[in-house]
């Protein structure tokens, strides 16, 4: 390949001599005159002075702003509360919030109705189960067994209902608390 036909990507990397040559070139000297350069430098200095003046004025205005707020009793916390309240009110008045609120309300009502229906179904099923012959047979067997046990343990007894038997058993067990005072105090080990 000849040097005249080489593309940009095919060029050789820069050498140190090329870098030195590029750093010595001053593009501003070749484009503008000394007068133009001084004029631009003066304009730059003037602009920097204006920027500094504006910064001082802004700082003074911010200080005055803070003093007036302090005199009115407006603290950063109260401003934050006001901004939060305003933001909350703006959000509540948005259509997206209203739609979401309505949707959640409807969903809550439907869920409540579903649980209510489920509770009614379960109550009805328990009622049906209690009235079934299987449950009545089981209840009779339990009562007979309890009567038999009560008769054997407590002497003569008249069976009674399941609830009566449970309460008498609870009373009997509470009266039969074992005593730990079996040993005389002189016989106890040290």
UniProtKB/TrEMBL annotation:
InterPro entries: TPD52
Bias kind Polar residues: ranges: 168-184
GO biological process: positive regulation of apoptotic signaling pathway
Annotated keywords: Coiled coil
Taxonomy, superkingdom: Eukaryota
Region described as Disordered: spans on this chain: 1-41, 151-190
GO CC term (a single one): cytoplasm
UniProt-listed PANTHER family: TUMOR PROTEIN D52 (PTHR19307), TUMOR PROTEIN D53 (PTHR19307:SF8)
Protein family according to the UniProt entry: Belongs to the TPD52 family.
The protein's name in its UniProt record: Tumor protein D53
Organism: Channa striata
């Amino acid at each position: 390949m000849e040097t005249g036909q080489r593309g940009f990507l095919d060029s050789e990397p820069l050498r140190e001599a090329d870098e030195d040559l590029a750093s010595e070139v001053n593009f501003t000297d070749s484009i503008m005159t000394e007068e133009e350069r001084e004029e631009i430098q003066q304009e730059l200095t003037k602009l920097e002075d204006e920027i500094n003046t504006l910064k001082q004025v802004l700082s003074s205005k911010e200080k005055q702003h803070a003093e007036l707020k302090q005199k009115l009793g407006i603290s950063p916390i109260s401003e934050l509360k006001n901004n939060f309240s305003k933001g909350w009110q703006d959000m509540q008045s948005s259509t997206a919030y209203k739609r979401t609120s309505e949707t959640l309300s409807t969903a809550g009502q439907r869920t409540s109705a579903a649980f209510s229906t489920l509770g009614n179904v379960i109550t009805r099923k328990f009622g049906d189960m209690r009235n079934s012959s299987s449950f009545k047979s089981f209840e009779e067997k339990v009562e007979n067994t309890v009567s038999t046990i009560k008769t054997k343990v407590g002497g003569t007894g008249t069976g009674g209902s399941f609830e009566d038997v449970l309460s008498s058993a609870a009373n009997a067990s509470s009266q039969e608390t074992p005593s730990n005072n079996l040993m005389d105090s002189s016989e106890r080990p040290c």
